From TrEMBL:
This is Prostamide/prostaglandin F synthase. Gene3D superfamilies: Glutaredoxin (3.40.30.10). Pfam families: AhpC-TSA_2. SUPFAM superfamilies: Thioredoxin-like. The gene is LOC107780627. PANTHER family: PTHR28630, THIOREDOXIN SUPERFAMILY PROTEIN. It comes from Nicotiana tabacum.
Amino acid sequence: MATMTSLQSLTLAKLRSLSSPTSTTFKFLDPFPSSSPSASSFSATASIFSPIRPTKPKQISNFVTKASSTAAFPQNIGDVLADVSIFTATGQSVKFEDLWDQNEGVAVVALLRHFGCPCCWELAKALKESRERFESAGVKLIAVGIGAPSKARILAERLPFPLDCLYADPDRRAYDVLGLYYGFGRTFFNPASAKVLSRFKELQEATKNYTIEATPDDRSGVLQQGGMFLFKGKQLLYAWKDEGTGDHAPMEDIFDVCCKVPVV
């Protein structure tokens, strides 16, 4: 417990060296506020991290070496991902190959962190507000998060977010295939996490109905980072790995790529 509390203190010190927001701002950087993003302590964070065994992290692939680079992926990454099974928010098993047309269909695949991450609620809200723009460009929106389908439904109901776009990957299978970052360092100590401070108002708005109950039961999932990918069929057009918590892909960059893809 003392070790976890110390880690939280070190995290805040690191972020304060990057900028000087109010103490209230930093409460939003805690992935586990005790009741809501406006909570006044980090007590729940320490208790939630106690079951995690960082000495045995989940194995991940090394397909990606740099955010926003598609060249680092093998040419058959679409085939590999297509065979990965996840769950709909209502609990049905589904493969990625069934989520969009694997020949000419265009899809934005957003891999959130976990359903109890406030920064992911902020990203989910931005995605929901962009859905109409995606669809007008012939692009299907797919959002995946870590946790059981029941956790996905909490986010969908309280944010809210459309269930038909939301999927659960409790075993982080897609995250492993895509080589997304994992670990304490990426979650708490990466300077890129400070980007969320520029979106403080958006974060407040997105987490009005936030609840920690959306956090996955398998606490090891909270150390996983997300990413954003754009596919045409099985061809990877755009790739982004979150360097740290809240380090989301620029939405305008994704729209720029979408606009260059001919709609079929």
